Amino acid sequence: MPVRRPRKHAVHLEVTAFINVIVVLVPFLLSTAVFSHLATIDLSLPAQNSGVEQLKVNDLKLEIVIRPDALEVGDRIGGLIQRIASTPQGYDLPALSVLMMQIKGKFPDSKTASVLAQPDTSYDTLVQVMDAVREAKPPGAKAKTPNVELFPDISIGDAPTSVAKK
């Protein structure tokens, strides 16, 4: 007697649910990808051999130190240039911009500056100070006037500890 084997029917792959998921997922991913932009700031680390032997007499080594109560603008060679006290609203960034433009007027070829912050300095404060050092609006300029480049090559680092007053 012959053996009967049941016939196997071809199995159809059901991909309708998968296609529905893809149809919904692709537009969602494309719409959210449009809104994710990264803003980057190019920074450079201080040179390893930036010691006293490399400093020139007429060369500006600009340093902006962020303290809890003030911004200290100085030259590594000449010392403190100006101390900009904080206002009740926060740091006086417009005064910093004006001072940066005055310094740029005296040293037009200089493009480097160091921003030194204490460990508890907020990221927002650091970026605002860097923006004020990097570029500023000319005095009396209209809203659509482009910003003037001041010190675009910014290095960041740790602020030296301040001496406690007795």
Helices and strands in order, then pairings?
Layout: H1 16-33, E1 62-66, E2 70-75, E3 79-85, H2 93-106, E4 112-117, H3 123-134, E5 135-136, E6 148-149, E7 153-158
Helix pairs in contact: 2-3
Strand content: 15-25%
Structural class: alpha/beta
Please report the distance between the alpha carbons of the first and last residues.
113 Å
What is the name of the CATH architecture of the domain at 57-158? 2-Layer Sandwich
Briefly note the CATH topology name of the domain at 57-158. Nucleotidyltransferase, domain 5
Strand runs, count? 7
The share of residues in helices is 25-40%
Reading off the top of the CATH hierarchy, the class of the domain at 57-158 is best stated as: Alpha Beta
| Basic shape | elongated
Radius of gyration: 29 Å
Element string (H = helix, E = strand): HEEEHEHEEE
Alpha plus pi helix count: 3
Structure description:
- With about 170 residues, this protein is α/β, with parallel strands linked by helices.
- The chain has a domain at about 55-160: Nucleotidyltransferase, domain 5.
- Helix content is about 25%, strand content about 20%.
- The chain has helices at about 15-35, 95-105, 125-135, and strands spanning about 60-65, 70-75, 80-85, 110-115, 135, 150, 155-160.
- The strands form two sheets. It has a five-stranded mixed beta sheet with strand order 3-2-1-4-7, with helices on one face.
- A hairpin with a 3-residue loop joins strand 2 and strand 3 (about 80-85).
- Helix 2 (about 95-105) packs parallel to helix 3 (about 125-135).
- The protein is elongated, with a radius of gyration of 29 Å.
- The chain starts with 15 loop residues before the first helix and ends in an 8-residue tail after the last strand.
- The model is unreliable at about 50-55 (pLDDT under 50).
